[in-house]
Amino acid sequence: MAEQRLVILGGGESGVGTALLAKTKGFDVFVSDKGKIKENYKQVLVQNDIEWEDENHSEEKILNANIVMKSPGIPDKAPLVKQIREKGIKVVSEIEFAAQYTNATIIGITGSNGKTTTATLAHHILKEELNVGLAGNIGDSFAKQVLEEDFDNYVLEISSFQLDDIIDFKPKIAVITNITPDHLDRYDYKFENYIASKFRIAKNQSKDDYLIYDADDEVIVDYLKKNPVQSTLLPFSLVKTIENGAYLDKENNIKITIDNTQIIMPTNKIALEGKHNVKNAMAASTVAHLLKIRKQTIRESLENFQGVEHRLEQVLKINKVQYINDSKATNVNATYFALESMSAPTVWIVGGVDKGNNYQELFQFVNEKVKAIICLGAENETLMSTFGNMVDVIVETQFMSEAVKIAYKLAESGDNVLLSPACASFDLFENYEDRGRQFKNAVRNL
């Protein structure tokens, strides 16, 4: 039988990782990127004799594939993807491709918000007692880790785009942190399409697998009622009493019960602040309890976990003003959590690429806590018209350094300056990390 030909669209972390794994598994591999492939990735492809092209898609080299792995960033609407599908060529995501080459226990974590924190926290707990990798939307690609590390367990942070292209992928433990409108531009502006996409994480699960989810999230609860899954359900809640799963008792302890074994964790010492982080802690601790991690280990890990960069990250205090980097807040719901956790008057830096945002849920916090708004985006009209009447000062800029200087002038002793954009970053920055780093550098240069 001739070698299978795998064409990879996108020469980034997931693309190059998949190329390396596929080459080892005997595939004829070709990497094609419409943009420029970064120099470090090019070097890896060259050193491994993997054929590639960038700033171009050569159709004749792509449409003869047996299987195509496309980067999560490429939408199904792209003409080339349509052509590939019309020819009946199988299209998969990196996690679908890589999962078939490992027998590891997979913990898959998805959700509109909280998935990075929950995945990082789960990994932080598990690594104390298990051999475990952290991949997916985070760090080194899953495919590369399957090739080089071969861990016994993987915690994968998985986006809806990655789930759109799974066929047989099934995690032993799936987590859905929450579902709020996001990325609707990729889902024909239909929220129900996005919800269904998230639930693909459980579509191949059987009753021996687990689905951990937020029982306070009406979207999730409602979907499960209408579309039951095979998995064993382990909900978590801040307000309900949960028999199998996790909840917060009257003394503010997290109680987790699985198969009649219960563990109790006090929340007063959890390093991360905010109600949403109690939920992230519940989800991660439920994973750990399922995998038989000792209660003491879970407790200590929750107490010493430092959080995720660009997620409510305390940068510096200057003249008694706290500067906070929440660049990872790329949707309204993430910014909701950020503003909810502010306990002082706040100068809020917001804006970027608006994915059809509805800012209404933020109004109570803006009225209550925000003293000034700095709009940092290429297009700020929606923000200006939405929030113009709510605060005394609202200004716009297209430079991070300027945004931070304005904030410095507006903030008084005891205030917060919060970068929590509620939008994607691609108008003025490379990605949310670039935006967050520019913010931190600007603060340090004050």
Q: What portion of the residues fall into strands of 2 or more residues? A: 15-25%
The general outline is: globular
The CATH superfamily name of the largest domain is Mur-like, catalytic domain
Radius of gyration: 22 Å
Helix content: 25-40%
Biggest sheet strand line-up: 7-8-6-9-10-11-12-13-14
Function: Cell wall formation. Catalyzes the addition of glutamate to the nucleotide precursor UDP-N-acetylmuramoyl-L-alanine (UMA).
InterPro entries: Mur-like_cat_sf, Mur_ligase_C, Mur_ligase_C_dom_sf, Mur_ligase_cen, MurD
Keywords: ATP-binding, Cell cycle, Cell division, Cell shape, Cell wall biogenesis/degradation, Cytoplasm, Ligase, Nucleotide-binding, Peptidoglycan synthesis
Domain Mur ligase central: 109-288
Protein model, in words:
One of its GO terms (cellular component) is cytoplasm. One of its GO terms (molecular function) is UDP-N-acetylmuramoylalanine-D-glutamate ligase activity. It catalyses: UDP-N-acetyl-alpha-D-muramoyl-L-alanine + D-glutamate + ATP = UDP-N-acetyl-alpha-D-muramoyl-L-alanyl-D-glutamate + ADP + phosphate + H(+). This protein folds into 3 domains: 88 residues, Rossmann fold (3-Layer(aba) Sandwich), CATH 3.40.50.720; 209 residues, 3-Layer(aba) Sandwich (UDP-N-acetylmuramoyl-L-alanine:D-glutamate ligase), CATH 3.40.1190; 132 residues, Mur ligase, C-terminal domain (Protein-Tyrosine Phosphatase, Chain A, Alpha-Beta Complex), CATH 3.90.190.20. The chain has a 9-stranded mixed beta sheet, covered by helices on one side. A 6-stranded mixed beta sheet has the order 15-16-20-17-18-19, with helices on both faces. Strands 3-2-1-4-5 form a 5-stranded parallel beta sheet. It is built from 17 helices and 20 strands. Helix 16 packs across helix 17. The chain is of the alpha/beta class. The longest helix has 16 residues. Strand 18, helix 15 and strand 19 form a beta-alpha-beta unit. The chain starts with a strand and ends with a helix.
